[in-house]
Amino acid sequence: MDNQHAEMSPAYADLGPTPPSTSSARETHSSQPSGAIKRLIGELGLRYRPSAQADLEAHAAALALLARDVSDVPPAYLERAIREWVRDRQFMPKANELIELARSYLPKADSDKDQRISLWIERGNAGLAAQGIHNAHWVHDKLADQYRIEPIPGAHWMSDWIILTCSPAATLRLAASLEEDGYGVWTPSVVERVDVSRMNAKREVRKPLLGGFVFASARHLVDMLEMAALPVKPRRGAGLLKPAHADFSVFHYFDRIPLIADRELNALRRIARRRTVPPKATAFKKYQTVRVEEEGNCFQGKTGVVQASSPKETEVCFDGRWTVKISTFILKPVAVEDGLHAARKAA
Predict the structure, then answer these.
(1) pTM of whole model > 0.70?
(2) C-alpha angle 220-254-257 in degrees, rounded to nearest 5
């Protein structure tokens, strides 16, 4: 046996290099064929049985060598190669011919490109994990040949928020421009009435409750990270031709990006509503049916019948038993047919 074949180890990854013909007296492999390989080669030998009795021993020896030469080929591929060979050939195949057939059944793929894609995704997911993001992962879209972050099935991702930090004076402007461009953002704000200098009048002014902080939907994480790294934050969509976004960065805590669950913002929403000057509302008629629309209110979604009402507050009877005073501006009228039913219950 020469040095090249003595050092060669069986490998299924590419079915190994093409071995020499089994007609050669050299030994190509030291591994023993499995029972499945012996069975397949034995059945192959029966199809090409020699006619002379004197050639039977040589034929058996050749089959033994052939079985050893193809011992690295998976039985499923070898069976398919033998089946294709015997269909239209009248002579015994050599080992290299069976191996070439078996290799042709392997999936065709750009192994170098697939390896680069896998390495890139592995590094990207490691980066997300290092930032404390465990409910999303990087994927490669083969059709578009692009990478993107997608939520892991079952993970609470779409309702989570990330924090953007900016200049306090630019808080509302940044939130408005991002929202105009189609991003899901929110910042708590309040509406206050302030005196107009040198005039006996007041005007309403909207102010941020948390100056310098804007919450963005976590599904925009990649866009926000890419935009934050740019010196000028470009617009898109409806705001494409408008001035750039105010400068901002994605909030990190100990080199990680914290994700804020949506329910954790309810307290901020309630504070913002309490500190906001209520809008002007019209009083409801007695026995009119209304529904509580305020999010987070303990009566949210409940329907009741008006007992008394003013632009400031309204007495509402729920389930014909409880009468509660509620701010008029958070109530909405409902359909007439629903009102008749609720009025009968209240009576």
Answers:
(1) no
(2) 10
Beta-strand relationship, 303-309 and 189-195? unpaired
Cβ atoms of residues 310 and 336 within 8 Å:
no
Residue 227 near residue 239 (C-beta atoms within 8 A):
no
Q: How far apart are CA 282 and CA 233, in angstroms?
A: 43
Of the candidates 274, 289, 304, which is a domain's last residue?
274
**Residue 126 corresponds to which tokens in the numbers above?**
């490691």
Are residues 312 and 212 part of one domain?
A: no
Half-sphere exposure of 86 (CA within 13 A, CB side): 14
- Write the CATH number for 296: 2.30.30.140
Q: Which residue has the tokens 């006619």?
A: 51
Return phi, psi of residue 159, to 5°: -95, 0
Structure tokens at 130: 């290092």
Q: Which domain range does residue 56 map to?
A: 3-103
Q: In the chain, what are the helix, strand and coil shares in percent, each to the nearest 5?
A: 40, 20, 40
The three-class DSSP label of residue 66 is helix
Q: What is the CA radius of gyration of the chain?
A: 38
Calculate the CA dihedral of residues 45, 50, 51, 56 and round it to 10 degrees: -100
CB burial readout 252-280, b (16+ within 10 A) else e: eeeeebebeeeeebeebeeebbeebeeee
Q: What is the dihedral of CA 305, 307, 308, 312, to 10 degrees?
A: -40
Q: What is the pLDDT of residues 245-286, one digit of tens each?
A: 999 999 998 888 888 888 888 888 888 877 776 667 888 988
156 located within any domain: no
72 Cβ contact partners less than 8 Å away, ≥ 6 residues apart: 10, 11, 12, 15, 16, 29, 31
The total number of structural domains in the chain stands at 4
Strand order across the beta sheet in which 322-327 lies: 322-327, 313-318, 303-309, 289-292, 331-333
Burial of 160 (0-12, 13-18, 19+ CB in 10 A): buried
Q: Which two tokens stand for residue 7?
A: 């050092």
Model confidence pLDDT, tens digit, residues 208-232 = 989 999 999 888 888 898 899 999 9
